[in-house]
Amino acid sequence: MKWKIKRFEQVQSTNESAKSLPVGSVVIAGCQTGGRGRYGRVWTSPKGNLYLSAVVSELGAQTPLLAFVAGVAVIEALSDFPVYLKWPNDILLNGGKIAGILLEKTEDRSVVIGIGINVVSCPKENMMYPTASLDNKISLPDLEEKLLNALNTNVDLLAQGHFDLIRNKWIKKAVGLGKTIEVHLPKQTIRGLFKEFSPQGELILETPDKIVHKITAGDVFLI
Ligand code: BTN
């Protein structure tokens, strides 16, 4: 797909600007006044970092898997850095979160993939996880190009039914897999062994009493 890019100096949220645009559109902004994260959290969005939203076709039951596609695309765009993935799609550098992904469905059966990457700065206070930035070691145009190419390739892979290939790439870069982790769910926190990243994208967690949980959404903490 050839992306059709719209650039703005400032928007409220690139996801918000993208949601009324057709499939293949990309919104890139210099900064955001109302950047949003998962679970209605704020995504602090000063100038210098990357704020990008791409509109893609929804893929029926496979649509949530686009979150892993986006995570893998960010990893590939940042192949010069020692970056890793924390389930479901946080990107870590030196243990700190440098990028976040927010998928939002639109009213006309498409999906906005919103990606924020801390290129020059990262919020430091009141964050639930440690944060990090790329310390300006990559230029924004270079990063944008690599990211859009990687997104294109990996969205196509999923659309052609190859989540197995995305999953293999994801597993190679996963942190916490095979280790004890803590998962914060809306009503409880579970600690256990991260046994598997399932073929459906779930986090398979086994607690010490051998109960197996299939988790589809939550916040993972490495312990
Ligand atoms: C998260 O980790 O909570 C997800 C953060 C997603 C942030 C990006 S920045 C570009 C796009 N526009 C937004 O308002 N949010 C996403």
Secondary structure elements and their pairing?
Layout (H helix, E strand, L loop, with lengths): L3 E8 L2 H5 L6 E8 L17 E8 L8 H12 L5 E4 L3 E4 L2 E10 L4 E8 L22 H20 L3 H10 L7 E5 L4 E9 L5 E4 L5 E4 L3 E4 L1
Parallel strand pairs: 1-2
Antiparallel strand pairs: 2-3, 3-7, 4-5, 5-6, 6-7, 8-9, 8-12, 9-10, 10-11
Helix pairs in contact: 2-3, 2-4
Give a brief outline of the structure.
The protein is an alpha+beta fold. It has helices at about 15-20, 65-75, 140-160, 165-170; strands at about 5-10, 25-30, 50-55, 85, 90-95, 95-105, 110-115, 180-185, 190-195, 205, 210-215, 220. It has a seven-stranded mixed beta sheet with strand order 1-2-3-7-6-5-4. Strands 11-10-9-8-12 form a five-stranded antiparallel beta sheet, with no helix packed on it.
**Count of the domains:** 2
What is the first-to-last residue Cα distance?
Answer: 41 Å
- The gross shape turns out to be globular
Oligomer: single chain
What is the SS-derived class?
alpha+beta
Any idea of the CATH class of the largest domain? Alpha Beta
Largest sheet: 7 strands, mixed
SS field, number of helical segments: 4
Radius of gyration: 17 Å
Contiguous uncertain segments of 5+ residues: none
CATH superfamily of the largest domain: Bira Bifunctional Protein, Domain 2
Q: Give the distinct bound molecules.
A: biotin
CATH architecture of the largest domain: 2-Layer Sandwich
Binned, the helix content reads 10-25%
Under CATH, the topology of the largest domain is which?
A: BirA Bifunctional Protein, domain 2
- Rounded average pLDDT: 96
Content of β-strand = 25-35%
Helix and strand element order: EHEEHEEEEHHEEEEE
Q: How many β-strand stretches? A: 12
